[in-house]
């Protein structure tokens, strides 16, 4: 039996009925030519439910002592595994637009996973227009983090549209097959920093002999204290509707943009793709706050998670650090805003590279853990460490297929917590960047508008750097659209 | 602001992620001739979402002091009421059989209601075969009990297939209209016992000056003590798979039987309709236990709730007492089993009639409350006060319509708790008796078989009393079937 690490424990400790701690999202597909929807989906469900041996932790459930979460927690085999429970089949009401899909995903994302069972669900969803279908998946963050879930996506699908009978992505065999392929390709793009696994580092830092829960408590006490090494710079971010107590229901919306279009803005300003993503979100948030008459004087800060997973490590579940990015929402000029965002990202990265690996890992904890731990203490909305989370998860670079069904988009759904009512996660896949936006339904009921404001923000940046955006060149756009139409119209785009 | 009574508080205190405390169920309809499903359902949703003033507590949410549930709790207006959240639209995957409907209802019934909002949801469900559609509704027991929900059903529908634009059943206006109609008709069939509202009686018994929570605790202490007036006879019911700890997921199945067919068995044995229902369930449970090799030597006991709601009282939410019925599952002869069940019901009713009203109300608490209160203490699976719950809720006698859509069946879904993993609730409606069976998915994964065993049990009783059951008379059955076919085939029946 494997013992849960301290970070995974944190996700269990922090979970409540208002703050489910699962990640997941929507994958969108087009049926193979000629395939019958019902027959095809039943085939997929059957292969996912096959009784192969599952890779950990998909066949395992939590085992606690009488101390509950105050004591050690292990993964144990679930001897009564009920795959019909985990693999589900749903349908959308007519007319089956993305709107109906997002309404369903919002609902599914707002309910807790059952802690008596393996901590995941996968829903096959039928009833979309244009021969599309979707899956919504849901993994507890204590079991699977964003990067692991992306490895799962990679292993589940094939770049070959004619590949069939790929088996269940949750099987041990599928994991082994994928590990082999990964060794051969070494094409992974994760950070090569020689950082240790976060949970290992923090375990050492707090000494494993000490009781985990009380260690964490004293750690939070230290963080809350004023001055010293623990008084971190982003301590005083402004209050907004994002930084409020939340309830348990969610709004999920999604949108794709062309990767090239976003990267071109970054390039034109000597910045990275990620800088451009942050600038696009920052401009969108500024507009949203303006329209709701609540733009704070001080700039919003975003937590930008950084993967610490070592290349080739596909099964340790949580290996994530964070940089605090200044979103410069107090600046109206888009170029000056971009420059300030870029500077804060460079400073954040420099901070990590100047530290020894072990120090860096610990530093990341100082940036990441308090949010999790302040939650159960109910303090985070008064001392918000960040305004929001903007997280970039690398996805497959080429078009992928699932038993011949083309994967059209990957839209991640993440966690929102007390004081962090908005999460923006994006996946770059097959020439697009797919955004999934998860929000508290009560704190940000109109979060779907953020999508439009992000498009406005991108246009504004393009205009400022002299790029003619697709919308401004109708004559060329027409021919471009024609060739891309068959592909584009099946993505979630601004027109839907 | 209305303060919650002690019984309603009990449902909040007892609720946990493994034991949601909501009731509800499936209502099945046939679209009006010529109506377009999508258009019709959108019309219904729109009228349910109209911004009329809502009757309490559908527009109200819980308001607690800093003491939480240990202090007084009130209903307050939800100023941010979001009816899109409460009125939902779902669809079934193809082929849209009752099987898919029950799978969806099982899932919806296994998730907690959001305590930050009014404690109810209603789901319009499309995608059924034969021009049927369904609603699944979900009400927290602290807000709405079974009888109140039946009043809601009555007020929602009309006996006139041509009646249209009935408005939202949740509106204050609809409640007032219904109250008037009730005054005129006085056709209600509730118990006329001059009993006081249960929560009033128990409040007096424990003195309002004492803190509610500690009173309940000492009450449980008394019940757990041995001997004296509190050592009640059903204390030692046998262990079975029904009396186990449960988890949070559910299985829901439903079935209709002809009211006449069940009543004929009761009549032939000088018993009531309810005696026949209990005998049918008892025989079914005996077969289920036998097939799973776990039939206990001692007989199973059923809690049979009795409504204490006074005629004309349609808004006090919980007014329920209980009789403990001996199911005689240790007896193989169906007639001897029936006789023992009947005797225990007569004894239970005699017990109530011999008590003064106030004593009866208190006695009912002794029968009902411990189950609720033992739950949070984790003791009920060791001291199960009953084996299961079999509850009969009176429904409308005539065929009802919702904006012209015929109501085909009313299948209630109820609560299962620690140690009571099975609940059987039935509604008599329009010549049928509609059973809804709710079970813990882990404890009773094959509960759908109980439906068949109940049919076997009914046939066995019919045979024993010399009634020729419909299955045994093919020659006459044919002609009977012909006339009833159009109606019957749309009910959930043994053939689906």
UniProtKB/TrEMBL annotation, chains A, B:
Catalytic activity: an acyl-CoA + a 1,2-diacyl-sn-glycerol = a triacyl-sn-glycerol + CoA
Location of the O-acyltransferase WSD1 C-terminal domain: 318-461
GO cellular component terms given for this protein: plasma membrane
Domain O-acyltransferase WSD1-like N-terminal: 6-277
Pathway info: Lipid metabolism; Glycerolipid metabolism; triacylglycerol biosynthesis
Entry keyword annotation includes Ribosomal protein: no
Stretch forming the signal peptide: none
Keyword list, A-Z: Acyltransferase, Glycerol metabolism, Lipid biosynthesis, Lipid metabolism, Transferase
Region (Disordered): 470-496
Annotated GO MF terms: diacylglycerol O-acyltransferase activity
Family: Belongs to the long-chain O-acyltransferase family.
Classification via NCBIfam families: acyl_WS_DGAT (TIGR02946)
Protein name: diacylglycerol O-acyltransferase
